[in-house]
Amino acid sequence: MTKNGNSLDQRTFGKLSRLYIIALSTIALSVIVSNMFVRQHLKAQQSDSTVINVAGRQRMLSQKLTKEILLLATAETPRASIVIKDRLKETLSLWQLSHNALQQGDVELGLPAENSKDISIKFKALNVVFEVIEKAAQRIITSIESKDSLVLESFNKDINLVRDNEGDFLLIMDQIVNQYSLEADEKVRWLGTLETLLMVLTLVILLGELLFIFWPTAKSVRATLAELLKAEKHAKKMAFDADELSYAKEKSIKELRALSQAMDETLLFARILSSGQIIHIGNKFSRRFKFSRFNDTAMFWNVMSTIESEKIALENLVTKHKKTGWQGEVKATTKEGESIWLEMAIIPFSPNDEKTELLIIASEITERKAGQLEIERLNKKNFQEEISQQKIISSKIIENQEKEQNRIAKDVHDGIGQMLTGLKYNLESININDIEKTASKIEHLKSLPLIL
To answer: What residues does the PAC domain cover (predicted)?
Structure first.
C-alpha cells in the first residue's frame, strides 16, 4: 500500500503493538502494586491474629499461674507440692516468654518487634504488676526447691501478692487485647479501603485505557479495515484491469508478431547502429542480399553492395542523415552482381537514453525504375526525332519561300507578264466573303485595261 518500510500494515500494527504493550504494562503494574499492598497487609494481619492469640493466652496463663500457686496451699503431701511446683515453673516460664515476646517480638512465635504507642503505654503499666507476680512466683518456686519449708505460712505472703495483683493484670491485659483487636480491625478496615482504592484505580486505568488506547485503537483498526477493504476492492479492480491489459498485451504482441513477420516477408527491413553496424535484418532482406544473420559485425553498406562507389554513397548517406532521417532512392548490387533499385527510408530512434539506432525500411523498385528509365529514354528519343523533323520542315519552308520570291520577282519584271501576274495575284487575293472589298477590287481590275 505504500513504500520504503512505512507501509500501512507496519504503521498500524506497530502502533497497536505499542498501545497494547502500554495497556498491558499498566494493568500488570497495577496488579503487582495491588498484590504487594495486599500481601503486606495480609502478613500484618496474620501477625495480628498471632499477637491477639498470645495476648489472650497471657490472661489464661496468669489465671493458671494463680490457680497453681493456690493449689500449693492445699497440697497434702510434699510430693504433691513438688508436682504442682513443676507445673508452676513451666507456666511461669511460658508466661514470661510470651510477655517479653509481646513487647520485643519473637520470630519463632511470629510476633512483631514493634507495638503501637497505646499498647506500649499499657505494657508499661502492666510491667509493674507483672514484676510483682513474677517475683512472688519465683520466690515460691525457690522456696520449694530449696526445701526450706513446705509449710503454708512460709510463702503465704507471696500467695496473697499474686492473688491481689492477678485482677489488675487481667484488667490491663484485657485492655491490651482489646487494643490489639481494635488495631487489627483498623487494619482490616484500612485493607478494605485499600482494596477499594486499588479497585477504583484499576477501574480508572481500565477506563483510561478504554478511552485513550482501546477506543482509538478500535477506531484505527476500523479505519484500517476500511482502507484494507478499499485497497482490496482497488486491488481487484487493478487485477481485472491487469488481466484486461494482459489480454490486450498478448493480442498486441500477436498482432506485432504477425506484423513483424509480414514486414520481414514483404519489406526490406533492418535495424542498424548509428555507426552502420547491423543489429537485425529481416528475412526478405537477408535472402535478397545473401546475408547470414549470425554475422553480427557486418556493416550495412557492405551488405547492400559489392561496388565500392555504391558502398561509399550509402555510408555517406547513413553518416549524414543518422540524426535527421532520410527518404529516397538508392542503388544496390547483390553478390551475384545484380543491380537493384530501392526506395529506402532511414528513421532514427532511441530504444533507451544511452543508445541510438536507425531503422532501415526499403522496398524494391527495380522494375519500376527500369520502366521510368525506359520512358525517359523513349521521351528523349522522340524529342530528338521531332527536333530533327522540325529542322527538315523549316529548311523546306525556307527553300520554297526563296523559290517563290525568285519566281515572283521574275514575273514582276516581265511586261504584260507582270501585269497579268499582278492581275492574277489580285484575283487570287479576292475574298468572296468580304463583299465590299471584292466589289472594290473588281472595279479596280476593270479600270486596268483603260489605264493600259
So the answer is: 326-377
Say which residue the cell 497434702 belongs to: 76
* pLDDT at residue 13, as a whole number: 65
User: Which residues, 6+ apart, have CB-to-CB distance to 324 below 8 Å?
Assistant: 348
What is the per-residue pLDDT for 451? 42
Bridge partners (DSSP) listed for residue 192: none
Q: Which fold has domain 267-364?
A: Beta-Lactamase (3.30.450)
Residue ranges in the chain modelled with pLDDT below 50 = 1-5, 148-151, 450-452
pLDDT of residue 2: 46
CB-based contact 431:441 (threshold 8 Å)? no
Q: DSSP label at 363?
A: E
Distance, in Å, from the CA atom of 81 to the CA atom of 89, rounded to the nearest integer, reads 12
State the amino acid at position 149 in one-letter form: S
- From the list 35, 148, 25, 134, the residue with the least C-alpha distance to 81 is 148
Q: Which pLDDT belongs to residue 450?
A: 45
pLDDT of residue 3: 46
pLDDT of residue 147: 65
Whether this prediction's pTM lies above 0.70 is answered by no
Cα 54 off chain centre by: 73
Q: What is the 3-state secondary structure (H, E, C) of 264-332?
A: HHHCEEEEEECCCEEEEECHHHHHHCCCCCCCCCCEHHHHHCCCHHHHHHHHHHHHHHCCCCEEEEEEE
C-alpha cell at 423: 492581275
Q: What is the pLDDT of residue 199?
A: 83
CATH topology of domain 8-228: Four Helix Bundle (Hemerythrin (Met), subunit A) (1.20.120)
Name the residue ranges covered by the structural domains of the chain. 8-228, 267-364, 365-400, 414-452
Cα-based torsion angle of the residue sequence 303, 304, 307, 311 in order, rounded to the nearest 10 degrees: -90
